[in-house]
Amino acid sequence: MVGIALGDRGHPPTKTSIIRFMSARTAPLPIPIPATDAHFYKYAAFTDKKMEWLKEIIFEHKLYLPTLDQLNDPADGRPKLAAISEEKLFNFLYHDRLSQNPDMSLDQQINEGLILDHNLKLHGRECITRKMSQYLNNELNGWRIYCLSKRWDNLSLWAKYANNHTGYCLEFANIGPFFTSAKIVRYGEAPELDPTNREHMDGRWFFCKREVWSNEEEVRVLIPRHSSCKVQIDPLWLTRLILGWKMAEDDKQRIRKWANERLPELKVVSAIYDQVDQTLKIAD
Questions:
Q1: So what's the pLDDT on residue 30?
Q2: C-beta separation of 239 from 259 below 8 A
Q3: Which residues pair with 221 in a beta bridge?
Q4: Are 160 and 72 in contact (CB under 8 A)?
Q5: Taking Cα atoms as reference points, which of 41, 60, 78, 34 lies closest to residue 205?
Q6: What does the pLDDT look like over 194-228, one tens digit per residue?
Q7: Cα–Cα dist 258/237, whole Å
Q8: At a CB cut-off of 8 Å and minimum separation 6, what does 95 contact?
């Protein structure tokens, strides 16, 4: 199978070119806005392995940071490559190849160009762009994102992430270097990147999601590649644990026991559903 860059020689895109894909886009995206809410919220189920995850948060004060491929949205953090002309694609790949091999003779440069031109015509722009997208996604997989919501009483999130109200919701104070780096997610059309545009290298697309996810009212913390899968937080940053209104009584007692044994002790409250107002409220 022909590689992206120069065909039969099988040269894959270089890391430099991948970073260029990551930085480019057809139109500037808004600068991500820091989240200024006093608290952020994390919904979760209380089942199987996730029971141990909560115990680790309570006693060891560690949060697990998922990679992009562990998130629910397969397009999350992965920008869409914009359609570009064959001429622009040729120029981008050709000049990238030459920049990585500055000692090529003139004859070698001409030969590389002929090979690339032949393979672009043989396999088509769409095939090459698809391969570029695959390499880009692989490069992005090392980034980690910690997703949070702006409020604790989102019925949809309780149903989706907290196992239909049988799970829990963590409340974090917006203090400390980890949480104060959170930014608001922008919802709308998926951002498109032009791989021939080198002007921007800021990763703003990490804070863009499609409109279908807008009910999550998300803020997120972006963690660079090659970082640990867990982060240690100050125990004071976790301010409250909210139990789902359908949580089993045995599970409630277990969590309250953990919270009482924690240093400092963690406040635990229960959510209740008000049938008249059709909203969630807190029962102290």
A1: 84
A2: no
A3: 146
A4: no
A5: 78
A6: 777 765 457 888 999 999 999 999 999 999 988 99
A7: 17
A8: none
Gap between the Cα atoms of 269 and 188, Å rounded: 35
Are the CB atoms for 236 and 172 separated by under 8 Å? Answer: no
Nearest-angstrom CA–CA distance, 154 and 43: 10
User: How far apart, in Å, are the Cα atoms of 166 and each of 78, 215, 236?
Assistant: 32, 20, 25
Q: Between these two residues, 17 and 93, which has the higher pLDDT value?
A: 93
Tell me how crowded residue 126 is: count the other CB atoms within 10 A of its CB: 9
CB-side neighbour CA atoms (13 Å) of 87? 0
Q: Residue 212: what residue type?
A: V
Contact 168, 60 (CB under 8 A): no
Tokens 């996730």 correspond to 50
Q: What is the 3-state secondary structure (H, E, C) of the chain?
A: CCECCCECCCCCCCHHHHHHHHHCCCCCCCCCCECCCCEEEEEECCCCHHHHHHHHHHHHCEEECCEHHHCCCCCCCCCEECCCCHHHHHHHHHHHHHHHCCCCCHHHHHHHHHHHHHHHHHHCHHHHHHHHHHHHHHHHCCCEEEEEECCCCCHHHHHHHCCCCCCEEEEEECCHHHHCCCEECEEECCCEECCCCCCCCCCHHHHEEEHHHHHHCEEEEEECCCCCCEEECCHHHEEEEEECCCCCHHHHHHHHHHHHHCCCCCCEEEEEEECCCCEEEEEC
Query: Is there a cis peptide before residue 264, judged by omega within 30 degrees of 0?
Result: yes
Dist CA 204 CA 82 (whole Å): 16
Q: What is this structure's pTM?
A: 0.83
CA distance 226 to 104: 34
